[in-house]
Amino acid sequence: MGRSTHVRGTAGKVYAYDAQTGVLVDTIVPEPSGTPTGTDAFGYRMAVDHEYVLVGAPMQNGPLKNATGAVFLYHLPSGTRVARVFPEGDAGSRGGTAVALDGTQGLVGAWLDDTYANGGGAAWLMDFSREIGDGYCGPANPNSTGSSASLRGRGFDHVSQDSFELVAERMPSNRPAYPLMSQTADFVPFAGGSQGNLCLGGLIGRFTGLVRSTGAGGSAIFPIPVGALPPPLQGGIHAGETWRFQVLFRDAPASNFTNGLVISFR
Predict the structure, then answer these.
(1) How far is CA 201 from CA 132, 148, 256, 261, in A?
(2) 81 and 146 belong to one structural domain
(3) Contact of 71 with 125, CB cutoff 8 Å
(4) What is the β-pairing status of strands 164-169 and 150-155?
């Protein structure tokens, strides 16, 4: 639940309760250093999805009459602020008067925005995903484009959110590609007759059901299902586990790999 008013000097707070026991488990207090402060109405609207809460502060970012508003994304168990975003409304639009949250995406309303019509209001769909994981075993061997393919993670590293993806880039255009994963690191040069280096060892899962074309831009995005690991792996990813990923792609005359990516999940 949130507590905020438009009375001058009120910043607001957010209180998190256990829905089953009614016990107060966390209090999110407006941060110092001016964000948010004063009359920001922090907690005016909120939306919860799994372990995250999206908090609206529609009176922030400007004097009372001209406030464009702001929204904050918090991880509830730790109380950590994940993101702070200022909607692109005009003066006095009050972004954050309505909010919704689904995974890494949030919908933010500004009921007084005049951008499209005088007093017509507006809503913005925002992506709060962030870079996760650390690269290793790189740079990858150059592919037929002359570049080294790269791999990065995007989304949330909290297992309960079940929302992260792998982004592979700088690959040859219009070639098939799919991810691999393992809990073990290794270094196998020119593995399987390829032109690249395999950075995984032990039991390696192959997401053959997630084959994507690299398209004209030589890139591909792979949404990883946290609860369904590829064979021969079984089960899902659990909090406290560390997993390593790599993407295999077709590259004339054989195949190649991106660098490796390691993610520690919470």
Answers:
(1) 22, 21, 16, 13
(2) no
(3) no
(4) antiparallel
Same-domain status, 86 and 140: no
Residue ranges of the chain whose pLDDT lies below 50: 1-9, 32-37
Shared domain check, 260 and 156? yes
Q: What is the three-state SS of the chain?
A: CEECCCCCCCCCEEEEECCCCCCEEEEECCCCCCCCCCCCCCCCEEEEECCEEEEEECCCCCCHHHCCEEEEEEECCCCEEEEEECCCCCCCCCEEEEEEEECCEEEEEECCCCCCCCCCCEEEEEECCEEECEEECCCCCECCCCCECEEEEEECCCHHHCCEEEEEECCCCCCEEEEEEECEEEEEECHHHCCCEEEEECCCEECHHHCEECCCCCCEEEECCCCCCCCCCCCCCCCCCEEEEEEEEEECCEEEECCEEEEECC
- Evaluate whether 205 touches 222 at the Cβ level (below 8 Å): no
177: domain CATH number is: 2.60.40.10
The confidence score (pLDDT) of residue 204 equals 98
Q: Is the pTM of this model over 0.85?
A: no
